[in-house]
Design brief:
10-stranded parallel sheet; 7-stranded mixed sheet; 19% helix; elongated
């Protein structure tokens, strides 16, 4: 495969604050690996090994984690986007730095696409397209760029429309044939009301100038992880696909599809689908219920947890209470000093302490 890949990971993730005050959202772990690892591994599976990573906010942390990419089977090149000026500008930076010098695929670093992108790359190459995009039907198109089709062709792209003019969202994966044309298109753009160079306007230039812009419609699921709700949604979807695996020690009870990583110890109960990371301890008075991810080094002392993410090195000790629909940051602790019966919902960032 001679395409190059570009993974975008420069954004601040403002909708995921306060988590993103201490890390980029691209390093939030999902089932033992950070978000950004999913698109990189997907590209490698599709045969794209030369991958540029556009970094900015907390870029040094992303670089430290990914390294040269060899452990993922990739060759990584880092491209800095000093100011967050939008997706189109990030792509332009890739060309400007000399990395994007042939056909390429852009993959947003906070997107997860079921079934991967290998088939879409094949369509792009076989169609002889100048640009190829992916579309997915969504209930609320106001949070996305959307495509308006006419006679089976893309007629117009609109970024985050206020009115529901189309339910076809533009997925965060874009394929381009000619980097020089991308530069030509980019130089006609002006920043939008958000102060960004919009990817929808970049692609619209190709449509308006008679270039071949094609699309595929995703039939499986796709997740753009930008909010706490979408983060938990992504977790539920990923857990639905897991193959059970027990590599740790189980002295308690496990039912359903559960992954228990090495050096984890289960003394309590775990009901799948659930993910238990490395070095996690689930004590005998604790119950991990359905759709829970407990990342490495965490300790669940007591209580019941359901539909929640517990990030690395956290501690939960909530007696009779049940933690639901929650995201608990790294190195945080939640403790109940009284017997609270009922549900607790918390979203707390790294290094937090909650005493109830």
């Amino acid at each position: 495969m001679h395409l190059k890949g570009l993974v975008l990971a420069a954004g601040e993730g403002s909708r995921l604050r306060p988590f993103t005050y201490s890390r980029p959202k691209h390093l939030i772990p999902l089932l033992g690996k950070p978000l950004i690892q999913y698109p990189i591994e997907d590209l490698v599976v599709a045969g794209v090994r030369d991958v540029g990573v556009v970094i900015g906010y907390f870029g040094d942390l992303i670089r430290d984690y990914l390294g040269d990419g060899s452990r993922f089977g990739a060759r990584l090149t880092y491209i800095v986007q000093e100011k967050r000026l939008g997706i189109a500008h990030a792509i332009y930076r890739g060309v400007e730095e000399g990395f994007l010098d042939r056909e390429f695929i852009v993959y947003l670093g906070d997107n997860i696409v079921s079934g991967g992108v290998k088939g879409f790359i094949k369509e792009f190459l076989e169609n002889g397209s100048d640009v190829h995009i992916l579309l997915a039907e969504v209930k609320d198109p106001r949070s996305f760029g959307v495509a308006i089709l006419r006679d089976g062709k893309i007629a117009k792209l609109v970024e985050k429309p206020k009115e529901p003019i189309s339910n076809l969202a533009v997925v965060g994966v874009y394929l381009f044939r000619d980097p020089d044309l991308v530069v030509k298109a980019f130089k006609t753009l002006k920043p939008s009301w958000r102060g960004e160079y919009e990817i929808t306007e970049l692609i619209q230039w190709f449509v308006d100038n008679g270039y071949r812009v094609t699309y595929s419609t995703i039939t499986g699921w796709w997740k753009d992880v930008g909010t706490y709700e979408s983060l938990l949604d992504a977790l539920y979807i990923l857990l639905d696909r897991i193959e059970p695996r027990i590599d740790g020690k189980v002295y308690g009870e496990i039912r359903g599809r559960v992954i228990v990583e090495k050096e984890a110890v289960i003394n309590g109960s775990v009901y799948g689908p659930a993910y238990i990371g490395r070095n996690v301890i689930v004590e005998k008075n604790a119950t991990i219920d359905h759709y829970v991810s407990v990342e490495q080094g965490s300790r669940i002392v007591s209580g019941n947890i359901m539909r929640s993410m517990i990030l690395d090195h956290a501690e939960i000790n909530i007696n009779k209470a049940r933690l639901i629909d929650s995201v608990i940051g790294s190195h945080s602790s939640v403790k109940c000093y009284k017997d609270i019966y009922g549900d607790i919902r918390l979203i707390i960032s790294d290094y937090s302490k909650v005493y109830l």
